UniProtKB/TrEMBL annotation:
Catalytic activity: 4-(phosphooxy)-L-threonine + 2-oxoglutarate = (R)-3-hydroxy-2-oxo-4-phosphooxybutanoate + L-glutamate; O-phospho-L-serine + 2-oxoglutarate = 3-phosphooxypyruvate + L-glutamate
Cofactor(s), by name: pyridoxal 5'-phosphate
Pathway this chain belongs to: Amino-acid biosynthesis; L-serine biosynthesis; L-serine from 3-phospho-D-glycerate: step 2/3; Cofactor biosynthesis; pyridoxine 5'-phosphate biosynthesis; pyridoxine 5'-phosphate from D-erythrose 4-phosphate: step 3/5
Organism: Parahaliea maris
Catalytic EC class: transferase
Gene (UniProt): serC
Annotated binding of L-glutamate, by residue: R42
Cofactor note: Binds 1 pyridoxal phosphate per subunit.
Protein name, as recorded: Phosphoserine aminotransferase
EC number(s) per entry: 2.6.1.52
PROSITE patterns: AA_TRANSFER_CLASS_5
Length: 359
C-alpha cells in the first residue's frame, strides 16, 4: 500500500496514526466485542468517548467552563442558519463581514431570518484582501458580528481578532486547531469537522453559555444550541463514529505537542510554499502578504493552458487534489495539520521540476 499526499480542501487528510488506530479497533473496540459503529450512543463506551473528546478539545483550545462545547451534525452550512436562529433574539439585524465565498453563503442564509448589515467587503479586490478594521461600518445594535477567519477558497486568513461590543461569531471551519486562539474573545465558534477535526458528518459549536436560551420560537430543536447543551449533544443520535475519530485526532494533536507545536509546523510549511511561489515568475498567489492563509494556499500558473498538465503530472507524482475551487480556478494546496512537512517538500520539488520542464 502506498499512501499519497492529499492536498484536498475537505474532506481532508487525516493523520495516518489515527487511521491505523481506527483500523486496529474496527471490529472489537477495547475488548468490548463490538465496533464503535454498533454501540448505542447511550452506552457507557460512547458517552465516555464523547466526554473524553470534549475534555481533550477543552484542553487543546483552553476552553473555560463559561463555554458549552457541542458536537452536532449538518456541517458548517447548517450553522449559517443556526447562528441567526439562536442569536437574533429581539434584535432586527446582525453584522457580517464579506471576505469570500463562505462569508457570502453565511450572509445569504442569515438574510432569511433578519436584516444583514455587511460592515465591510473585499469583493472589489476579488477577495484577495481583508478590509482594514477601522473601515468597518459597525452597528452597535447588531445582534452579533459574524466573520470567516479563514476563507478556504480564497486562501485569506485573519491574523487578528476583531474587537467589537457585540458577540463575535466565527466560522472557523478551515482554521480551527491550526494554531492557538483565545476562545474568550468569541461568543460563538463553529466548524465543520472535515478539515482539522475529523471526518465529515460532525460539526463543532463552541458557544458562550450566556448566549444560550435566546433562540427564536421557530428554531428547530435540532438547530437549537440550548437543546443540544441540555442534552450533552445527544438530543438525537449523534454521529458516533465521527466523534470517535475526532477524539483520536485530539489525542494525536496532544501527542504532537498541542497547538503551539502545530502552529510552528504550519508556519514553516506555509512559509516554504509561499516562498516557492513568490520566488518564481511561473507561479503566483494573489493574496495580500498580511492575510495569506496558513491552511489553504491558492496559486496560479502564468500560462493557464498548462493547468491540465500540472494536475495530471501532480497526480502521477502522488500529489492529489491540487485543483483550485471551481469558482476561482488555478490550483490550491490545502495543508492542514495532517498534511506533513514531507508533503509540502514533495509539492515544492514537483513545482520546481514542472517549471523546469514547461517554463
Ligand atoms: N465554511 C467554510 C470556511 C468552509 O471551508 C466550508 C467547507 N469547505 C463550509 C463553511 C461549509 O462546510 P460544510 O460542508 O461542513 O457545511
Amino acid at each position: 500500500m502506498t499512501r499519497k499526499y492529499n492536498f484536498c480542501a475537505g474532506p481532508a487528510a487525516l493523520p495516518e496514526a489515527v487511521l491505523e488506530t481506527a483500523r486496529n479497533e474496527m471490529l472489537d473496540w477495547h475488548g468490548s466485542g463490538l465496533s464503535i459503529m454498533e454501540m448505542s450512543h447511550r452506552s457507557p463506551e460512547i458517552v465516555g468517548i464523547a466526554e473524553r473528546a470534549e475534555a481533550d478539545l477543552r484542553q487543546l483550545l483552553s476552553i473555560s467552563d463559561d463555554y458549552a462545547v457541542l458536537f452536532l451534525q449538518g456541517g458548517a452550512s447548517t450553522q449559517f442558519s443556526a447562528v441567526p436562529l439562536n442569536l437574533l433574539g429581539g434584535k432586527t439585524s446582525a453584522d457580517y463581514v464579506n471576505t469570500g465565498q463562505w462569508s457570502k453563503k453565511a450572509i445569504a442564509e442569515a438574510k432569511r431570518y433578519g436584516g444583514v448589515n455587511v460592515v465591510a467587503s473585499s469583493e472589489d479586490t476579488n477577495f484577495s484582501t481583508i478590509p482594514a478594521f477601522d473601515s468597518w461600518q459597525l452597528d452597535k445594535d447588531a445582534a452579533y458580528l459574524h466573520y470567516t477567519p479563514n476563507e478556504t477558497i480564497g486562501g485569506v486568513e485573519y491574523f487578528w481578532t476583531p474587537k467589537v461590543d457585540v458577540p463575535l461569531v466565527a466560522d472557523m471551519s478551515s482554521t480551527i486547531l491550526s494554531r492557538p486562539i483565545d476562545v474568550s474573545e468569541f461568543g460563538v465558534i463553529y466548524a465543520g469537522a472535515q478539515k482539522n477535526i475529523g471526518p465529515a458528518g460532525l460539526t463543532l459549536v463552541i458557544v458562550r453559555k450566556d448566549l444560550l436560551g435566546r433562540a427564536a420560537d421557530i428554531c428547530p430543536a435540532m438547530l437549537n444550541w440550548q437543546v443540544a447543551a441540555d442534552n450533552d449533544s445527544m438530543y438525537n443520535t449523534p454521529p458516533t463514529y465521527a466523534l470517535y475519530l475526532a477524539g483520536l485526532v485530539f489525542d494525536w494533536l496532544k501527542a504532537q505537542g498541542g497547538l503551539e507545536a502545530m502552529e510552528a509546523i504550519n508556519r514553516r510549511k506555509a512559509g516554504k510554499l509561499y516562498a516557492a511561489i513568490d520566488g518564481s515568475d511561473f507561479y503566483a498567489n494573489p493574496v495580500e502578504l498580511a492575510s495569506r492563509s496558513l491552511m489553504n494556499v491558492p496559486f496560479t500558473l502564468a500560462d493557464d493552458s498548462l493547468d491540465k498538465a500540472f494536475l495530471a503530472e501532480a497526480d502521477e507524482a502522488g500529489l492529489l487534489n491540487l485543483k483550485g475551487h471551481r469558482s476561482v480556478g488555478g490550483m490550491r494546496a490545502s495543508i492542514y495539520n495532517a498534511v506533513g512537512e514531507d508533503a509540502v517538500d514533495a509539492l515544492i520539488a514537483f513545482m520546481h521540476d514542472f517549471e523546469q520542464r514547461h517554463g
